[in-house]
Structure formats: structure tokens, C-alpha cells
């Protein structure tokens, strides 16, 4: 099998999504996977830095709304919640609904339960099993 080129990688549509009924809201939402950039921004938003600039904790304020703001999209995959005010409004919705949707958002985005610890630099890294040859 031939190795991919940057153009082939760029042209590949690797988005994952699920359309999820939300009876409490009277309809269906589309939850799409985050891009690498959105995922990094979400994880960075969660970090609490100490005076020395190193991670000292995780900020879980509006965690579900912040996650869902990166994942709730319209039929054309445009994000529904962009501004901080919109995200705060989403955070004011029923917490059980937000949590249920956040579980799906994490799954389609490949985020595990340890993502908060990883963002704070508290997870152990495992050595790669790939090797290089010279």
C-alpha cells in the first residue's frame, strides 16, 4: 500500500458524527467529532495554570457546554455555539441532557475519561511501539 501524501490526507473526510434525538428540546441535534485544533483548544480551556506557568489543575466550569460548543453543528457542519454568551446559555440547559450529549461528543471525538488529566499533564505517557530506521 502506498503512503499518503499531504494532499490526500487533506482531502480525506474523516469526520464522525451522530444525529441524536433530544426529546427535552423537541428535536434532534448533530454531534460531530472535533478537529484536532478544536480538541486542543477545548483541553487548553480546561487547564488552570499555576504562578510558574505549569498546569496545577482542571477547570470544570461549564465543561459540558464547552465540549458541546465544539461538537454541536448544523447540517452543513457549522458550529451552533460560537460566542462565550452562547456557550453560557447552553450551560444553563438541563444538566442531565448536557451530560448525555457530552458522552456522545466524547465518543465521536475519541476523548476518554482521562482527557482532563491529560490536559493537566497528569497522565502517564506510554512509549511508542514504532521504530525508525536509519
Can you summarize this structure?
The protein has 134 residues and is α+β, with helices and mostly antiparallel strands. The protein has helices at 6-11, 36-46, 63-71, 84-91, 95-109, 115-119; strands at 17-22, 27-32, 47-49, 55-58, 72-73. The relative contact order is 0.17.
Describe the protein's architecture and organization.
The protein is of the alpha+beta class and 134 residues long. It has a single domain (15-119), classed as rbstp2171 (2-Layer Sandwich), CATH 3.30.2220. The chain has helices at residues 6-11, 36-46, 63-71, 84-91, 95-109, 115-119, and strands at 17-22, 27-32, 47-49, 55-58, 72-73. The strands form two sheets. Strands 1-2-5 form a three-stranded antiparallel β-sheet. Helix 2 (36-46) packs antiparallel against helix 3 (63-71), helix 3 (63-71) packs across helix 4 and helix 3 crosses helix 5. The longest helix has 15 residues, at 95-109. The protein starts with 5 loop residues before the first helix and ends in a 15-residue tail after the last helix. Residues 115-134 have low confidence and may be disordered.
List the main descriptive attributes of the protein structure presented here.
single chain; rbstp2171; two-stranded antiparallel ribbon; flat
By CATH, the architecture is named: 2-Layer Sandwich
Classify the fold: give the CATH topology. rbstp2171
Strand content: 15-25%
Q: Which CATH top level class fits?
A: Alpha Beta
Q: State the CATH superfamily name.
A: Phage tail assembly chaperone gp13-like
Largest sheet, if any? 3 strands, antiparallel
Number of extended strands:
5
Q: Write down the domain tally.
A: 1
- In the sheet with the most strands, the strands line up as 1-2-5
Judged by helices, strands and strand pairing, the structural class is alpha+beta
Low-confidence residue ranges: 115-134
The helical percent reads: 40-55%
